[in-house]
Amino acid sequence: MQGAMRYEIVVRGRLSSRFQSPFTGLELEPRPGQTALVGEFSDQSQLHGALDRIRDFGIELVSVNAID
Q1: What is the pTM of this model?
Q2: Element (H, E) at 53
Q3: 4 closest CA partner among 38, 47, 40, 39
Q4: 26, 19 in Cβ contact below 8 A?
């Protein structure tokens, strides 16, 4: 993978502002019944790190989408 890629990670539920710190660099976008975390990832390991934090907090993952 070359260069940073922008991703949208959608999770179930509304994440409060306390989750801004563990997901520094990502925008939290509230949606009905969901929250999208949107931002750039420099490589796959950085993306997987964010996904690991989601798992560690017990947050249900809905989807992961690359954004053009």
Answers
A1: 0.90
A2: helix 44-56
A3: 40
A4: no
